[in-house]
Amino acid sequence: MQKFLTHQGIAAPLLRVNIDTDAILPSREMKRVSREGLGGSLFAGWRYLQGVVKAGNLDPEFVLNQPAYADASILLTGQNMGCGSSREFAVWALKDFGIRAIVSPSFGAIFYTNCIRNGVLPIILDEKQIADIATEVVPNPQLNQLSIDLQHSQITTPNQQRYSFRIEASYQQMLLNGLDPIDLTLQLQTDIDEFIRADQVKRSWAHANRPIND
Amino acid sequence: MPKPPGLTLFDKIWNDHTVERGEDGSYLIYIDRIFLHERTGSLALSGLESSGRTTKNPANVFCTMDHIVDTKPGRSDNTTTPGGKEFIQVTRQLANQHGITLFDLEDPMQGISHVVAAEQAIALPGCTMICPDSHTCTLGAIGALATGVGSSECEHALATETLRFFKPKQMRVQFKGKLSPGVTAKDLALHLISTFSATGGSGCAVEFAGPVISELDVEARQTLCNLAVEFSAFTGIIAPDDKIINYLKNKPFAPKGQAWQTATKYWSTLQTDVDAKFDHEIEIDCTEIAPTVTWGTSPEQAVSIEAVVPHPDSTDLASKKNAINRALNYMNLSPGMPITDLPIQAAFIGSCTNSRLSDLRIAANILKGRSIAPGVKAICVPGSTQVKALAEKEGLDQIFRQAGFEWRESGCSMCFYAGGEGFNSGDRVITSTNRNFEGRQGPGTRSHLASPATVAASAVTGYITDFRAIQD
Ligand code: SF4
Known about the structure:
The complex is a heterodimer.
Chain A: E1 6-14, H1 21-24, H2 44-47, E2 72-77, H3 89-97, E3 101-104, H4 109-117, E4 121-124, H5 127-137, E5 146-149, E6 154-156, E7 162-164, H6 169-177, H7 181-186, H8 189-202
Parallel strand pairs in A: 1-2, 2-3, 3-4
Antiparallel strand pairs in A: 1-5, 5-6, 6-7
Chain B: H1 9-16, E1 18-21, E2 27-30, E3 33-37, H2 41-50, E4 61-64, H3 84-97, E5 101-103, H4 113-119, E6 128-131, E7 145-148, H5 151-160, E8 162-165, E9 169-176, H6 185-196, E10 204-209, H7 211-215, H8 218-226, E11 235-237, H9 242-248, H10 258-267, E12 280-285, E13 292-294, E14 302-304, H11 318-331, E15 346-349, H12 357-367, E16 377-380, H13 385-393, H14 396-403, E17 406-407, E18 428-431, E19 446-449, H15 452-461
Parallel strand pairs in B: 3-4, 3-6, 4-5, 6-7, 9-10, 9-12, 10-11, 15-16, 15-18, 16-17, 18-19
Antiparallel strand pairs in B: 1-2, 2-8, 13-14
The complex binds iron/sulfur cluster.
Iron/sulfur cluster binds next to loops of chain B.
């Protein structure tokens, strides 16, 4: 898993509520059984004229297409970011595009976990705090970059405003150290198998499909 | 010693599946059943392959083809979705390689994941179940603890038979009173979401309870739980009762013989204790709920069929005001327009929300002896091959066809647009599905969510219609 320690970058405001994963990556852009190369299709319906992904078709109005936000790596969004479909393709597209952190008052639950799993940092702040950050960034996004320190779970703005955010300690550790959650769980294999043995007695009916081990 | 507090239905299932409690307060939860589909399951399986891991217990893993596969008659691996064939073929190859039960294109058990998992009794009361699909919460209707996950989480469950979660908060929504005739679970769900917002259930496992729930049949309960995710809930769940037990009995994957006896005894304990405490409680009087339909681009933007399109000033919240303005613009509507004045170009009955036999019967009942309005494109896609067969047995396909509907093979079809088939840009579609997001059913398509009765009645008149107005 990709580590996340600190990050400094350009923040782009996309302050809409309920940005769903269909909007982040439309289903039509999931053309291969692959997690790679999806960045070009990120926000396809909003980034490209008529939603048609091809060179030269970028909608100059859309925030991520404006020169001021070139190389943006942080998104500032409205509440319920990443609601809708569970597709992890949405996070793979954000990551491939270069987004390292997303700031929102709230996230779709599956999307939040998908972000953590892929080393993209989801940051929860109040709507008001996000609006204040946006106000500070917008006059000169390339210059007014944000600094994120995951160890101290803090965002710092160019004016030295500090915003603390909450993140579960285990998620923080996972990101700081790039730990693989499957490996972590596999260390508990004995506990899991013990649980299953006891459960086979308690809820035998739920294990009817399981081949009997002798 | 003080008596320990009562447990909720959710607590009971959660506790019985807790393998280990992490230092950070997380829980390692044993997962009973994993369901995959070709769109995201393919990614979970290929991820597992590339990390050199295996599926730990393939006997509890099931897979179907629903998202990408065509629903036109005579379908094959060739599908209109760009790249779709690869998804289908990779899924088939990996499912076979991993020894997973696959419901392939020609299988009589093929269909939409959540419809199949219920009708084949793969989801059971008191079981945990995941699928890399957000509408997995549908199966809470059976009394399962079912939730949608991403592909990586699914990979984790395949490799370990467990997933790590933080325990969600708990909410109970009690539906009191009595539903008016013809008002369905779909209207109930849209009413709930529009009243308490699309984030009303955020971070919560939501138990649906109350006299109205007891009255609902098992399929209607699936419709309600299906929409729990549009309420931002971790899942929806309903305590299993005799209706559920009768529904499951003798289904292909239900326990049989002695195991059935043991199971039903266990299931009878799956009730929230009277002294259990919830973090949040909501009560809804259902008596006044009318058929409900969405006007905007979020399921929370829904109103009674008797109402008008709302004004942005109906909210004080700046972010909501912006959302209303954006939605009005996308949907090409003005505040104050009566919902029933809106002409439609298409009508769709299908999806894991409303495509079961009872849904098709309700729609057919309205369509019988009627024809759809000229110029309307109308499509019915049964939720599973089994639903399709049962519907054909009672002649529902004939009613749909004679009214002017297309009658399709089972799958997700135009519930979502994947680059192949979709409705036209600018088309207004009345649809029995669950998401009215921008572009969900095709670039520029305007989707109005409603119950199958409302969809059928609207297809007949060519306008969004209160079905009660055209009933004899
Ligand atoms: S029918 Fe629609 S909502 Fe349901 S699983 Fe398929 S695409 Fe998703």
